[in-house]
Design brief:
Blueprint lengths: L2 H8 L3 H26 L5 E6 L7 H13 L9 E6 L7 H10 L4 E5 L1 H9 L5 E5 L19 E5 L6 H11 L5 E6 L4 H18 L2 E6 L3 H13 L5 E3 L3 H4 L2 H10 L4 E3 L2 H5 L4 E4 L2 H16 L16 E5 H7 L5 H6 L2 E3 L1
Parallel strand pairs: 1-2, 1-3, 3-4, 4-5, 6-7, 6-8, 8-9, 9-10, 11-12
Antiparallel strand pairs: 10-11
Amino acid sequence: MRRRDFLSLLGGTPALWSATALSLLGGTAALWSATARAQQPRIPVIGFLTMRAPGEDLYLLAGFRQGLKEAGFVEGQNVVIEFRFAEHQTDRLPALAAELVQRQVDVITANGPGARAAWTATRTIPIVFVAGFDPVEAGLVASLSRPGGNATGVSVFDVRLGRKRLELMLELFPAETAFAVLVNQTDPARAKEILRDLETAARDLKVELHVLNAGTDRELEAAFAKAVELKAPGLVISGDSFYTSRSKQLAALALRHRLPAVFGWREFAVAGGLMTYGTNLTNGFRQVGVYIGRILKGENPADLPVLQPTEIEFIINLKTARAFGLEIPPTLLVHADELIE
């Protein structure tokens, strides 16, 4: 409409002027509203790929959200999280990772074998992982200090701690020559790496290993019964997301079978397991949240070094030791970070 025509309308009858002006102003307001919406920043989306099932290990998710908050992101306010749960079925991970790539999420976080699946699915979307294996050996990063690609994260190197856990068992039972070890063969690559490390340690320590496999709840029951049948003095539980999510169940099985066991995460000792030796996994997930926040703000994962734990927690449950009739050697007591009475 030309300016002269618009002025003519304003000079018309009040009713006509009012209706026309309101119509024009309403259209302008709608245009302004649409423009304002278009100028609002897009809310980023995080793809969360995990081996676990919904509702498991909520304390780890709490650590992750805490890290995001420290970086300035709160779920439901300025960031969205898309969850994909493999429910401990490794073969589901590739399809779940592909879904997140198709969803065009801004960044993917993945734990364990999920990190490999995510890295296979995309070399462009940033990936921040929690890995118990060596990410350099797995090909996810070029080096720990300079990842160089689209992946970085936290490496807890849990498979490297199997030797120490076996040494702790031997220190508790110095006269024994054979121990049981629990592994999950549903993740063959990780199981192979764990066993390679433990078998090397067993040869060095001159002890024998009874390898027990369990990847389901029913198999866990059978594995503990088999360890008792073999008269194993103690059990080394390997690091695995399936086992981590069942820390309380593993502790209950160990108590029921009166089987001294060592695991990686403090939740096991708190629930009644005899000993734990490992990193603080909750803090690892918190650090992943911080890294994701930094990436969402523009940093490049290729330049963010893979973080490694600087502290290892050694916890002994003395109440469980007394229930088993065990006397913990002073050398173990003095090195424990926490004694649960």
